[in-house]
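Re: your question about ABC transporter ATP-binding protein

S., sorry for the slow reply, the queue was backed up all week. Below is exactly what I fed in.
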Amino acid sequence: MNQTATAKPAAAAKLDTPAIELDNVSCRFITADGNVTVALRDFSMSVARGEFVAVVGPTGCGKSTTLSLITGLLKPTIGEVRVMGEPVNGIDPRIGFVFQNDAVFPWRSVRDNVAAGPLFRGKPKDQAYELANEWIRRVGLDKFGDHYPHQLSGGMRKRVALAQTFINSPEILLMDEPFSALDMQTRTLMQDELLQLWSAHSGSVVFVTHDLEEAIALADKVYVLTARPATLKSTYQIDLPRPRVMEEVRYEQRFIDISRKIWSDLREEVQIK
Ligand SMILES: Nc1ncnc2c1ncn2[C@@H]1O[C@H](COP(=O)(O)OP(=O)(O)OP(=O)(O)O)[C@@H](O)[C@H]1O
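Result:
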């Protein structure tokens, strides 16, 4: 075989590599009293570059564990986790996070919170603050740059968290129930904002949620996990057209059909005691 004729240029081959791969991963915890909890069993997942993946499953099955494995905070008991084709090894600056609890510094103003990432990464102060102002404007908080987190609503704090994360241009964004503490209206607004930021930014997202509708409305692909020990129950490609408008997409017939299908899978698992 003619190797040179078939081999892809290295750069192109690299771009084909998924952003995230979990390869037959199992994760087992041994608690202080000697009990063993298997959180994931023989679980595989692949997230392409620029893809938005949502992970749903019953409470306590192992959804957050998948994120901890991607960050390198946890190591799999069996299997391998790769980011951009390389085995995970420590904290990766290409990964950003947004969790349910805001990771804002309460003693810093909005502007200082948003500038913290670039400053930490060594950007000169004037550039870091210029960028922070730009992101504060993008998330609609222009008038609140000098406010402190306790002076903001839950939705506004979430905007700070998004600005704080997106300012670092993460190639991978991990989100663990980021909007679950928000009321329904604010949550819908934040979902729209997330989609706008993501589409302008083109990173890969793994979004863990209890809310099946949220998963379908946002994602390109939904992974459904079984009850613990979580293994893969099913995956669904979500073929709803983009751009999606949150308050409209959930009334579309296609959305309702997909929800019904996935819910029938999930219901079986939620009912397992
Ligand atoms: N560090 C740990 N030590 C021991 N057990 C753990 C640890 N982390 C998670 N677990 C256990 O692993 C299981 C899966 O936890 P995980 O947080 O991944 O579930 P989840 O699906 O995200 O849950 P929820 O939907 O309630 O947020 C749970 O039973 C949890 O108690």
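Confidence is low (pLDDT under 50) at residues 1-5. The radius of gyration is 20 Å.

Happy to talk it through on Thursday.
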